[in-house]
Specification:
Layout: E1 32-33, E2 41-42, E3 45-56, E4 59-70, E5 74-78, H1 85-92, E6 100-105, E7 108-109, H2 115-120, E8 123-125, H3 138-148, H4 159-179, H5 195-207, E9 213-217, H6 225-240, E10 244-248, H7 252-258, E11 261-266, E12 269-274, H8 276-281, H9 283-290, H10 298-301, H11 307-312
Parallel strand pairs: 5-10, 5-11, 8-9, 9-10
Antiparallel strand pairs: 1-2, 3-4, 3-6, 6-7, 11-12
Bound molecules: adenosine-5'-triphosphate and magnesium ion (MG).
Length: about 325
């Protein structure tokens, strides 16, 4: 990026530029600036990532040229199995290191920032396979969530001060647990929870850090339908409370229902993005994700090969 361009957290279409007087006016949905295409600038991006590559042996699991995650909205990251969604999550949150690339969170670089510091800055994530510690109680798991934010788990040395702080943390844990209807289970071992309850606990635990951006990797996977609506409502609640959400999900009904913006990955690349309805009608997405249009090759969708090359295959 040249020095005359916008700083990394800003879209490349600065608002002080005069509105175009010729040709098509710039389209804005409230979230993006310009045509909804891979890498489109956002009005107020929370994450801006450039040139992110992660290679496993000969496989480029992530190869993202440019992507921006809008602030204050719910963005769904969708794509077929093995598309690189979890790897991308791992990279953005410091759980893995890219071979190349830079990215910013609220305008500050996160490259080489370790996961616990990423969480301290207000970016937390949950895992596709829940990481609730089964031999700790639900409450202890919640307290570990605040430790992620840089709180210490208090040794007994300086008791009076620390006890007060610990009481505050416990009070916060109970308050969040009751919102998630898990308060009655505070003293149960997390290992005894159902899959859905564990997902709820993970989301609840993430909130202990008072995050700005919550990244959820398949929050609905393995969740009993009885808990689905509750999980959906909790995700919508995060937005109501002012948080930004980025979530990975395979359930398109859920994506359509709660996402303001959808980003599609296939073979490590961003192949489409836009509002849910538009994205789900996009033939390239249907091909990449649902496999319904067998006449379009995935290589064409990802720009790796031309349609002619695909036809020759
Ligand atoms: N640690 C690793 N070592 C080697 N290959 C890996 C590793 N992690 C992921 N991969 C590979 O990278 C690719 C992307 O995997 P990733 O888990 O990011 O996909 P995903 O989009 O999250 O898929 P799913 O929807 O199934 O969760 C896959 O081909 C996967 O096998
Ligand atoms: Mg995954």
């Amino acid at each position: 990026m040249s020095s005359s361009e916008a700083p990394p957290n800003m879209p490349n279409l600065p608002d002080h530029e005069p509105a175009p007087t010729r040709g098509e006016p710039v389209k804005t949905t409230g979230l993006h600036i310009g045509e909804a295409a891979p890498g489109v600038a956002k009005v107020n991006p929370m994450i801006v990532a450039d040139g992110i590559v992660r290679q496993f042996g000969g496989l480029k699991a992530v190869d993202v040229d440019h992507v921006e995650i809008p602030s204050g909205a719910i963005t769904a990251l969708i794509g077929p199995n093995g598309a690189g969604k979890t790897t991308f999550f791992n990279l953005l949150t410091g759980f893995d290191k890219p071979d190349a690339g830079t990215w910013t969170f609220q305008g500050k670089s996160l490259a080489r920032v370790p996961a616990f510091k990423v969480a301290q800055r207000g970016l937390v994530r949950t895992f596709q396979l829940t990481k609730a510690l089964s031999l700790l109680t639900v409450l202890e798991n919640m307290k570990l969530g605040s430790a992620q934010r840089g709180e210490r788990l208090f040794p007994s040395l300086i008791k009076p001060l620390w006890r007060k702080r610990e009481e505050e943390i416990e009070a916060r844990a109970h308050e969040i647990l009751s919102r998630f209807k898990l308060d009655a289970k505070a003293d149960d071992f997390a290992g005894g929870l159902s899959g859905g309850q564990r997902k709820l606990l993970e989301m609840a635990r993430a909130l202990m850090t008072d995050p700005v951006l919550v990244m959820l990797d398949e929050p609905m996977a393995g969740v009993n339908p009885a808990l689905t609506q509750s999980l959906l409502d909790h995700i919508l609640d995060l937005k109501t409370q002012g948080m930004t959400v980025l979530f990975v999900e395979h359930d398109m009904h859920m994506v359509r229902h709660i996402a303001d913006w959808v980003i599609v990955m296939a073979e490590g690349r961003i192949v489409a993005e836009g509002p849910p309805d538009a994205v789900m009608k996009d033939p390239a997405v249907i091909d990449a994700y649902l496999g319904a249009h067998q006449d379009l090759d995935l290589g064409v969708v990802t720009g790796r090969i031309t349609a002619e090359e695909a036809a020759r295959k």
